[in-house]
Amino acid sequence: MNRKTTGDYAEQLACGFLQRQGLRLLTRNYRCRRGEIDIIMRDGDSLVFVEVRYRHRTAFGTAAETVSTIKQARIIHCANCYLTQHRAWNEPARFDVVCIEGTPQQRRIEWLQNAFCLDSR
Q1: What is the 3-state secondary structure (H, E, C) of 53-112?
Q2: In terms of Cα–Cα distance, which of 54, 60, 37, 61 is closest to 116?
Q3: In terms of Cα–Cα distance, which of 74, 55, 73 is closest to 63?
Q4: All structural domains of the chain
Q5: Which pTM was predicted?
Q6: Residues 16-73: pLDDT tens digits?
Q7: What is the three-class DSSP state of 51?
C-alpha cells in the first residue's frame, strides 16, 4: 500500500472504532489553508477534533510521539477555522489522537482523549 492508501485505511479504522464508542461522525479530512483535521466527530455536546496516527513498527517512536507541537498548532488552527465557519465558538471541544500500531493481524488501537489543548502551541 502507498502512503495515501495506508492513511485512508487508518482513518477508516479509527472512525469505525470511535463510532463504536458512541461518537458521531461529522466530517473527514477537513482542510483549511494551513492544514487538515483527519476526523471531526461529536461526543455528546462536545466537538472532537481527531488526529489519526499509524505506525507499522515503533522502532523510531510510537504513533503518539509523532504528534509534534508543530502538528498540534496546525490542527488547532484548522479547528479554529472550522469553529468560525460553523459558528460553533461556544461549543465545548477537545483534541483527541487515535494511535494505531502493528500489522493487520496484530493491531493495537489507543484512543488518547484530550491529547493536547490550545495551550500546547
Answers
A1: EEECCCCCCCCHHHCCHHHHHHHHHHHHHHHHHCCCCCCCEEEEEEEEECCCCCCEEEEE
A2: 37
A3: 55
A4: 3-108 (3.40.1350.10)
A5: 0.89
A6: 999 999 999 999 999 999 899 999 999 999 999 999 998 866 556 566 777 888 999 9
A7: strand
Contacts for 99-105: CB closer than 8 Å, 24+ residues apart: 99/53, 99/54, 99/55, 99/62, 99/63, 99/64, 100/10, 100/13, 100/14, 100/52, 100/53, 100/54, 100/55, 100/63, 101/54, 101/55, 101/56, 101/58, 101/62, 101/63, 102/56, 103/56
| Model pLDDT for residues 87-112, shown as the tens digit of each residue | 998 999 999 999 998 877 788 999 99
Q: What is the mean pLDDT of the chain?
A: 88
Q: C-alpha distances in angstroms, 34 versus 7, 38, 43, 72?
A: 19, 13, 25, 12
